[in-house]
Amino acid sequence: MQFKTLAVSLLGLMWTIPALAQTTTFSPTKGVDATLVLEGSKLNIAVKSETHSESRTIDFEAENELYLQFDDFNFDGVQDFAVWQLDDGMGTYHYYRVFIYQVKTGTFEELQPDCGDGFVNLRVDKKRKALLSTYWEMNIPKQCITRFTKRKPE
Predict the structure, then answer these.
(1) Which of 40, 83, 111, 147 could serve as 98's disulfide partner, Cβ 3.0–4.6 Å?
(2) Long-range CB contacts (< 8 A, 24+ apart) of 113-116?
(3) Is residue 84 within 8 Å of 122, Cβ to Cβ?
(4) SS3 label, residue 123
(5) What are residue 48's DSSP bridge partners?
């Protein structure tokens, strides 16, 4: 009987674990603190510095679990982040939404790829300073290269 009680208790605990929020704090640049709270399909972003404070929520309308990844996605020396998930099918593709920290405004802005509808199977190519992802044209997978050297600075 004790085993049954323990099993039911553990099962109940396992069901509550995904509901817990994942909180991450990092500094995109000196003097700025960003706190990300990932709870289910919602992401709360709070950015604070001496001169600016921003807080907002993004709903990802995601069925699968969301994950955070940190990197300098636009190669400007400032820490950015991405939120990714596996596709709803066989879990073959990773779908990313990339958020770039804008020093002038003190906010994170979502980055769009140079081709396709979004970043799929994103790879950061630091040597070429480009983001590599997959997109489809007539059901044929192709490589998208998103570069930053041609973009005007914010």
Answers:
(1) 111
(2) 113/144, 113/146, 114/144, 114/145, 114/146, 114/147, 115/142, 115/144, 115/146, 116/144
(3) yes
(4) strand
(5) 33, 53
Q: Where are the domains of the chain?
A: 21-147
In angstroms, the CA 112 to CA 117 distance is: 8
CATH of the domain spanning 21-147: 2.40.128
b/e map 125-143, b = 16+ CB within 10 Å:
eeeeebbbbbbeeeeeeee
Q: How far apart are CA 67 and CA 91, in angstroms?
A: 14
Q: Exposed/middle/buried for 15, CB within 10 Å: 0-12, 13-18, 19+? A: exposed
Using a cut of 0.85, tell me whether the model's pTM lies above it.
no
Torsions phi, psi for 98 (to 5 deg): -110, 135
Compare 112 and 7 and report the one with higher pLDDT.
112
Hey, which residues does 3 pair with through a beta bridge? none
- Separation of alpha carbons 105 and 5, rounded Å: 54
